[in-house]
Amino acid sequence: xxxxxxxxxxxxxxxxxxxxxxxxxxxxxxxxxxxxxxxxxxxxxxxxxxxxxxxxxxxxxxxxxxxxxxxxxxxxxxxxxxxxxxxxxxxxxxxxxxxxxxxxxxxxxxxxxxxxxxxxxxxxxxxxxxxxxxxxxxxxxxxxxxxxxxxxxxxxxxxxxxxxxxxxxxxxxxxxxxxxxxxxxxxxxxxxxxxxxxxxxxxxxxxxxxxxxxxxxxxxxxxxxxxxxxxxxxxxxxxxxxxxxxxxxxxxxxxxxxxxxxxxxxxxxxxxxxxxxxxxxxxxxxxxxxxxxxxxxxxxxx
Length: 302
What we know:
Blueprint: H1 3-42, H2 56-67, H3 77-97, H4 110-140, H5 151-162, H6 173-195, H7 204-237, H8 251-262, H9 271-299
């Protein structure tokens, strides 16, 4: 095996290790806010409904009271199983896609970073969508934690009733592609374009704070741009308003239904918990990735 090939596989292994570590840390810390975001996005009830969530903290309070404290981590197993390989794939493919979008430039440009991020987002969306379907199903369950079916039981039920197709484990895949593709396009494009302009400092604390700050802004921007697709994804993958009748099917059709029936701002339901999660979550991922990757390069030099 040539030295170039060995170097490629070594770098790929380090990118996978750093990306997987970043995903695992982020999901363990930020999962409750992802659950709250999903609950808010799925509800089409009016404020008079006693089960209506008025906001992030009202949702958390009602869940703790009616479902128990650990209900905030409902559906965490699919993300844990998915996030580590998902983030590993995302960071790995982002690094590889950058090579294809240089367009003759000697070094990556903002367009390179954005297109590579888009490609990485589409790739991870296709791989992770079955886990998302199971996660949303678990997050939609309002029973107490001890009565909530297991991840495996929910997966078997989905496969038994709907199979692996567009109404089963691949339900909402186009919405997931739209959500992840757009988020990563903005997320990676902004972070890597701005990172080169950060002040040069030898102080590790200042370096950490600058990276975390830019990572936070990158996560917030990606969240704002992609949330209509996220709302559509939650509606398609979650329980339908009338059991046995499929109201939410295609991505654009679902966005149109939500806009027509509930108004423009309904397309931004769950934005607050999404930003609360993916702002700091985006910072956590990029900072953990950078530090773990730098550590691995130092630990295993060429």
